[in-house]
Backbone:
């Protein structure tokens, strides 16, 4: 029988549609069930933003700027308050109100040529007027906390143990050119050099120097030349007001009081 003949015949397009329905049903039976959707992990809520208390603007004071890389390779300094205005940085006393720093020391020599005014026991004590056990960075930090700025000029004085009278550090020096007592020269707070995160004075042991020294915390403002050449530089004065090994305090103050 022809597909085009008779009332019971199917038109070609209807037959094709029927075959497509049957084929689709057969393929659907063979398909795998879709994989179950994996639920996304829960998202933790964001932590609350911290809040910070603010100081009273009437009494707040700017904090000294201390470079983060200016800390030596040894342990961090210990800062202890003695009063509201006085801190102890290691064994260095910092008076914040008076802008005054005191360093415990002792007389290193009784005679000889000088290149340094104050070094540690690991520094060149054989060429220094004074020697100390404190760490150079503690002196640096005490000066910063007391309000001194690198580059500022300062005065250095000494006080005998148990005494109250202070005299210029230069009283311990003699000018080699004139043979006379040294003048009360000013010093400069150099700030100490830092290399690869290391505070170099902690390694050289140099705190106050009479000759150019990049690692020093304090440098004589006036350069007097090489003391080993001719009659330049300084030597230890004789007779000394205190004996070798005597305990003294090195006092660091501003060159002149600031005017407001």
Residues:
């Amino acid at each position: 029988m022809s597909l085009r003949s008779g009332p019971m015949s199917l038109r070609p397009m209807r037959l094709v549609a029927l075959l497509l329905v049957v084929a689709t049903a057969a393929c659907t039976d063979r398909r795998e069930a879709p994989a179950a959707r994996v639920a996304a992990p829960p998202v933790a809520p964001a932590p609350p933003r911290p809040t910070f208390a603010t100081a009273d603007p009437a009494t707040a004071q700017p904090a000294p700027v201390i470079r983060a890389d200016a800390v030596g390779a040894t342990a961090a300094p210990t800062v202890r308050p003695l009063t509201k205005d006085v801190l102890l940085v290691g064994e260095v006393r910092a008076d914040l109100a008076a802008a005054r720093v005191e360093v415990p020391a002792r007389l290193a020599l009784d005679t000889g040529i000088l290149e340094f005014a104050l070094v540690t026991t690991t520094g060149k004590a054989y060429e220094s007027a004074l020697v100390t056990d404190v760490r150079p960075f503690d002196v640096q930090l005490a000066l910063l906390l007391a309000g001194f700025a690198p580059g500022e000029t300062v005065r250095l004085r000494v006080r005998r143990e148990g005494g109250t009278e202070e005299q210029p550090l230069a009283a311990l020096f003699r000018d080699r050119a004139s043979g006379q007592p040294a003048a009360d020269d000013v010093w400069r707070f150099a700030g100490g050099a830092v290399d690869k995160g290391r505070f170099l004075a902690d390694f050289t042991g140099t705190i106050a120097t009479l000759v150019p020294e990049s690692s020093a915390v304090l440098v004589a403002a006036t350069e007097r030349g090489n003391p080993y050449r001719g009659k330049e530089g300084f030597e230890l004065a004789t007779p000394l007001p205190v004996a070798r090994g005597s305990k003294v305090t090195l006092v660091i103050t501003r060159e002149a009081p600031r005017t407001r």
In short: The radius of gyration is 40 Å.
